[in-house]
Amino acid sequence: MKLKILLFFITAIALVSCVDIPDFDDTPKIFYNSIDTQTELDTSGKKIQENITVTVDFEDGDGDLGASDAEIADSVKYRDWGNYELVTSTLTNGKWVDQILAIDQFKWFPDLKPDGKSGPIKGKLDLHTSAKYFNSSVPVTIKYKVRIRDRALRVSNQIVTDSITVPGFR
């Protein structure tokens, strides 16, 4: 009987030691995954807007990514931008011109570990934005620069998306 218990504990310890816990840095890191567009039409088939989704893969060592409703309402803590930073780069006269559009000034994703337990996490984030069609819209080529930040205000690296064509103005 004692031998069975001893074998059980040795087996349990061996199995637990086989689990690799990732060793990510506490500063979030992101990787470009994809950019997709979907045209939204009204009931008559007229184009209303391009819905744009930027997908990034992320990893974070302490898992403090995302924001609660209270944190989103705290204009002092986050000041200039939310927990996503989305810079639009527009191809103008052969050069990329960067700007943060008013629609993209404050972008948020929810708390990814609402249990509050510290520990490494990784996954995918989808960032949504749009470009509206107007009578005077013309096709423009854009790409995005994206960063995220955690609740401790540590800022990730910046990724650059592929370029896409959306409605815009010249």
Brief characterization of the structure:
By secondary structure, the protein is mostly beta strands. The chain is 15% helix and 42% strand.
Question: How would you characterize this protein structure?
Answer:
- The protein is mostly beta strands and 170 residues long.
- It has one domain (22-168): Sandwich (Immunoglobulin-like).
- Helix content is 15%, strand content 42%.
- It is built from 3 helices and 8 strands, in the order H-E-E-H-H-E-E-E-E-E-E.
- Strands 3, 4, 6, 7 and 8 form a 5-stranded antiparallel beta sheet that branches. The protein has a 3-stranded antiparallel beta sheet with strand order 1-2-5, with no helix packed on it.
- It is elongated, with a radius of gyration of 22 Å.
- The termini are far apart.
Layout of helices and strands:
Layout: H1 2-17, E1 29-41, E2 47-60, H2 69-73, H3 75-78, E3 84-92, E4 95-99, E5 121-132, E6 138-148, E7 159-160, E8 164-168
Antiparallel strand pairs: 1-2, 2-5, 3-4, 3-6, 6-7, 6-8
Helix content: 10-25%
General form = elongated
> If you consult CATH, what is the topology?
Immunoglobulin-like
The CATH architecture comes to: Sandwich
* Amount of beta strand: 35-45%
Radius of gyration from CA coordinates: 22 Å
Order of helices and strands: HEEHHEEEEEE
Beta strand count: 8
What low-confidence regions span 5 or more consecutive residues with pLDDT below 50? none
Oligomer: single chain
Name of the CATH first level: Mainly Beta
Keyword list:
170 residues; mainly beta; Immunoglobulin-like; 3 helices
